[in-house]
Amino acid sequence: MSRGRRTAGFLGVLLGGAGALHMVRPEHFDTIVPTALPGPARGYTYASGVAELAVAALLAVPRTRRLGGLAAAALFVAVFPANVQMAYDWRGARPRKRAIAYGRLPLQGVLIAQALHVARARSRRHGPV
Prior knowledge:
By secondary structure, the protein is mainly alpha-helical. 80% of the residues lie in helices and 0% in strands.
């Protein structure tokens, strides 16, 4: 199995799990929706969950994997403000919670890089999709 395929599988499981959690436990995600966004947080929670599930599906299918990699990178960029909101909100929390919140910030860059790797690996082997 190629590195790009393994990475796509990892990202697909990560996004599929996160998307499912957005649907079954939305209250946690509601708390990190930036307050500057208009409308109720729950709408953003469900929308991001649906997007995560859709991107996971794109990553799972070899024919759509390049698009899935690009979509995953865009999604990771789009949800970064929620990670910033969490870090801000948890700045006075217990050390473990702070470490989780602050650790998510650089991790987002790693996830973006991995998603772009999937998109490039797919396009090198099979051309444009």
